[in-house]
Structure to design on (423 residues):
């Protein structure tokens, strides 16, 4: 099965990320259904070991798995809920679609899977995503808060049989009743949180009609939802998809499509109360406000690259709270994006936080041209800085790391040596 991936960076950096992949021998081409998506044709090493993957500049994702966010189709600036998020592939694509003026709340009930979700989002530098941990059906959120909701609930996974040959043994038909009941609970809860005129995308990776078409039919009859047509995206033509229920359902078949089996349905809430009033003026934000100008090392950090929001101190953890999270109710326990930590009066950013790197300038960072030097640096070898890139002042600590001007992360300088110490 062909490997697909997304590029995750600023629009003006896309060509440099492509060059970084090519410099290591990867051959790829754009997917026709999204400017963010690509398909690999040749890989000298597994794509996950590439430098682009190491710095979170690409995310490997099955092409069918990209369909739910793309067909939910939130506009830039939208407020989106991903009810069952981990490992974060769909959450990350949603965040790219809404952009830094939007917000994605990613919920994951399992603690270990939540940690995986947060790790993946951190690597991708998606600072406008907040996370929380609740059973999806118990989310303490008000009615009508979200204009767009993605519900990709636990399912039997029959559509992944090519990758998981034993899935039919694990989830035979007689064991599915609890799953079907949970899916309906989640659908009912999603409906309550959807704003009037809002869009809900229900998706599964199973081919089982009881979890797919039957669930949509139940939602149409029991909830104030209407089906809305889904249109085939380029690359997913009639040979690998079918639609029914007035065009509001789509099935990607494993045997025909170049990806795993997927079911999707788009639903619209037509009636209901107006969305709740925004809470943006409240003054009860968690954590303590931070004046970053007081801390050593802060002067080399491009704080202006953050979206609208606040940087707060949570017992030494530097957290970013996107502005749109001020609309969350007081009873919701959630987490923003961890930027790094405070050690005394020194700022220690997460090493892969490339978003806060300023534009490259000599003596403010190291700019590597040879990709093999970059590989050796990540393998633990130190790199001698060229004379023109040694900091002008006596500096020991974070130092910008770039490849041909492409921001990568924060290295550490000791004298005239550069080290990569991930944290």
């Amino acid at each position: 099965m062909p490997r697909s991936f997304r590029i995750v960076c600023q629009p003006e950096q896309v060509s440099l990320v492509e060059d970084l992949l090519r410099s290591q021998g990867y051959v790829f081409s754009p997917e026709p259904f999204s400017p963010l998506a690509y398909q690999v044709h040749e890989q000298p090493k597994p794509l996950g070991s590439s430098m682009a993957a190491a710095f979170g500049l690409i995310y490997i994702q099955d092409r069918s798995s990209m369909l739910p966010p793309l067909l939910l189709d939130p506009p830039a600036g939208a407020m989106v809920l991903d009810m069952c998020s981990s490992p974060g592939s769909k959450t990350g694509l949603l965040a790219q679609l809404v952009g830094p003026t939007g917000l994605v709340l990613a919920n994951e009930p399992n603690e270990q899977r939540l940690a995986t979700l947060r790790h993946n989002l951190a690597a991708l530098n998606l600072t406008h995503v907040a996370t929380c941990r609740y059973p999806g059906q118990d989310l303490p959120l008000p009615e009508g808060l979200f204009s767009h909701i993605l519900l990709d609930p636990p399912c039997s996974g029959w559509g992944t049989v090519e990758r998981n040959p034993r899935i039919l043994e694990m989830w035979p038909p007689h064991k599915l009743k609890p799953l079907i009941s949970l899916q309906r609970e989640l659908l009912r809860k999603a409906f309550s949180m959807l704003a009037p005129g809002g869009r809900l995308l229900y998706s599964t990776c199973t081919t089982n009609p009881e979890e797919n078409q039957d669930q949509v039919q139940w939602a149409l009859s029991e909830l104030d939802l209407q089906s809305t047509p889904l249109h085939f995206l380029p690359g997913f033509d009639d040979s690998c998809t079918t639609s029914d229920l007035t065009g509001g359902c789509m099935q990607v078949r494993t045997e025909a499509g170049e990806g795993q089996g997927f079911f999707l349905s788009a639903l619209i809430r037509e009636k209901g109360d107006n969305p709740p009033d925004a809470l943006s003026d409240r003054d009860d934000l968690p954590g303590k406000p931070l004046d970053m100008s007081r801390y050593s090392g802060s002067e080399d950090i491009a704080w202006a690259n953050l979206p609208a929001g606040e940087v707060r101190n949570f017992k030494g953890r530097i957290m970013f709270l996107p502005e749109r999270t001020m609309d969350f109710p007081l009873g919701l326990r959630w987490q923003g994006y961890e930027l790094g930590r405070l050690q005394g009066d020194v700022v220690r950013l997460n090493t892969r936080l490339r978003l806060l790197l300023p534009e490259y300038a000599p003596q403010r960072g190291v700019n590597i041209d040879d990709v093999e030097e970059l590989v050796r640096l990540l393998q633990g070898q130190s790199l001698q800085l060229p004379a023109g890139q040694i900091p002008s002042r006596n500096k020991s600590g974070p130092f910008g790391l770039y490849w041909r001007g492409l921001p990568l992360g924060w290295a550490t300088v000791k004298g005239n040596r550069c080290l990569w110490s991930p944290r």
